[in-house]
Target: BON domain-containing protein
Amino acid sequence: MSSQVISKALLIVLFPAVSASVWSQTSGNREVSADHVEAVSQKLIVKSDRLADRALRRRIYKALAKHTEVDAGNISIVAKNGQVTLDGTVRDAGQIDTVEKVTRSDPGVLAVTNKLAVQRPFEE
Model:
Protein backbone atom coordinates (compact mmCIF):
# COMPACT_ATOMS: atom_id res chain seq x y z
CA MET A 1 0.00 0.00 0.00
CA SER A 2 1.18 3.45 -0.70
CA SER A 3 1.76 6.01 2.04
CA GLN A 4 -1.10 8.15 0.73
CA VAL A 5 -3.59 5.35 1.09
CA ILE A 6 -2.36 4.61 4.61
CA SER A 7 -2.61 8.32 5.54
CA LYS A 8 -6.18 8.54 4.22
CA ALA A 9 -7.15 5.38 6.06
CA LEU A 10 -5.71 6.71 9.31
CA LEU A 11 -7.56 10.03 8.84
CA ILE A 12 -10.83 8.22 8.25
CA VAL A 13 -10.36 6.15 11.40
CA LEU A 14 -8.83 8.79 13.69
CA PHE A 15 -10.95 11.85 12.80
CA PRO A 16 -14.22 10.48 14.23
CA ALA A 17 -12.42 9.20 17.32
CA VAL A 18 -10.76 12.57 18.02
CA SER A 19 -13.99 14.47 17.29
CA ALA A 20 -15.96 12.29 19.69
CA SER A 21 -13.34 12.84 22.37
CA VAL A 22 -13.40 16.62 21.97
CA TRP A 23 -17.22 16.68 21.83
CA SER A 24 -17.57 14.70 25.03
CA GLN A 25 -15.22 17.04 26.88
CA THR A 26 -17.01 20.24 25.91
CA SER A 27 -20.60 19.09 26.02
CA GLY A 28 -20.63 17.95 29.64
CA ASN A 29 -22.80 19.68 32.20
CA ARG A 30 -21.16 22.75 33.60
CA GLU A 31 -21.36 23.34 37.28
CA VAL A 32 -22.05 26.93 38.23
CA SER A 33 -20.19 28.15 41.26
CA ALA A 34 -22.01 29.73 44.17
CA ASP A 35 -19.82 32.83 43.73
CA HIS A 36 -21.03 33.21 40.15
CA VAL A 37 -24.66 32.87 41.19
CA GLU A 38 -24.12 35.44 43.95
CA ALA A 39 -22.46 37.89 41.53
CA VAL A 40 -25.29 37.60 39.02
CA SER A 41 -27.87 38.01 41.80
CA GLN A 42 -26.16 41.16 43.07
CA LYS A 43 -26.15 42.66 39.56
CA LEU A 44 -29.86 41.98 39.21
CA ILE A 45 -30.59 43.50 42.62
CA VAL A 46 -28.55 46.62 41.82
CA LYS A 47 -30.33 46.99 38.49
CA SER A 48 -33.77 46.61 40.06
CA ASP A 49 -32.82 49.14 42.77
CA ARG A 50 -31.78 51.63 40.09
CA LEU A 51 -35.03 51.12 38.23
CA ALA A 52 -37.02 51.62 41.44
CA ASP A 53 -35.07 54.80 42.22
CA ARG A 54 -35.77 56.16 38.73
CA ALA A 55 -39.45 55.32 39.03
CA LEU A 56 -39.61 57.12 42.39
CA ARG A 57 -37.98 60.25 40.90
CA ARG A 58 -40.44 60.23 38.00
CA ARG A 59 -43.43 59.89 40.34
CA ILE A 60 -42.24 62.85 42.42
CA TYR A 61 -41.65 65.04 39.35
CA LYS A 62 -45.08 64.03 38.03
CA ALA A 63 -46.70 64.94 41.36
CA LEU A 64 -44.88 68.28 41.37
CA ALA A 65 -46.15 69.03 37.86
CA LYS A 66 -49.70 69.03 39.24
CA HIS A 67 -48.77 71.99 41.47
CA THR A 68 -48.64 74.86 39.01
CA GLU A 69 -47.33 77.27 41.63
CA VAL A 70 -44.08 75.27 41.81
CA ASP A 71 -41.46 75.62 39.08
CA ALA A 72 -39.65 72.27 39.22
CA GLY A 73 -37.23 73.27 36.45
CA ASN A 74 -34.52 74.23 38.96
CA ILE A 75 -35.15 71.34 41.34
CA SER A 76 -32.97 68.25 41.39
CA ILE A 77 -34.37 65.06 42.90
CA VAL A 78 -32.00 62.25 43.84
CA ALA A 79 -33.57 59.02 45.09
CA LYS A 80 -31.65 56.10 46.53
CA ASN A 81 -33.45 53.25 48.29
CA GLY A 82 -36.31 55.50 49.40
CA GLN A 83 -33.98 58.26 50.62
CA VAL A 84 -34.76 61.40 48.61
CA THR A 85 -32.60 64.52 48.40
CA LEU A 86 -34.11 67.73 47.07
CA ASP A 87 -31.67 70.34 45.78
CA GLY A 88 -31.95 73.52 43.76
CA THR A 89 -33.84 76.78 43.89
CA VAL A 90 -37.46 77.92 44.00
CA ARG A 91 -39.00 81.38 43.57
CA ASP A 92 -40.35 81.83 47.10
CA ALA A 93 -40.07 80.20 50.52
CA GLY A 94 -43.60 78.76 50.41
CA GLN A 95 -42.61 76.52 47.53
CA ILE A 96 -39.93 74.82 49.63
CA ASP A 97 -42.58 73.46 51.98
CA THR A 98 -44.87 72.49 49.10
CA VAL A 99 -42.13 70.53 47.33
CA GLU A 100 -41.19 68.70 50.52
CA LYS A 101 -44.83 67.93 51.33
CA VAL A 102 -45.46 66.55 47.81
CA THR A 103 -42.29 64.47 48.03
CA ARG A 104 -43.20 62.98 51.41
CA SER A 105 -46.68 62.05 50.12
CA ASP A 106 -45.22 59.36 47.85
CA PRO A 107 -45.41 55.93 49.55
CA GLY A 108 -41.94 54.99 48.31
CA VAL A 109 -40.27 57.85 50.18
CA LEU A 110 -38.69 56.85 53.49
CA ALA A 111 -36.81 60.08 54.25
CA VAL A 112 -36.30 63.50 52.70
CA THR A 113 -33.23 65.72 52.83
CA ASN A 114 -34.29 69.19 51.75
CA LYS A 115 -31.51 71.42 50.39
CA LEU A 116 -33.81 73.76 48.49
CA ALA A 117 -33.12 77.50 48.61
CA VAL A 118 -34.98 80.61 47.53
CA GLN A 119 -33.67 82.01 44.26
CA ARG A 120 -32.40 85.57 44.58
CA PRO A 121 -33.20 88.11 41.88
CA PHE A 122 -30.27 89.22 39.74
CA GLU A 123 -30.35 92.77 41.14
CA GLU A 124 -29.33 91.66 44.64
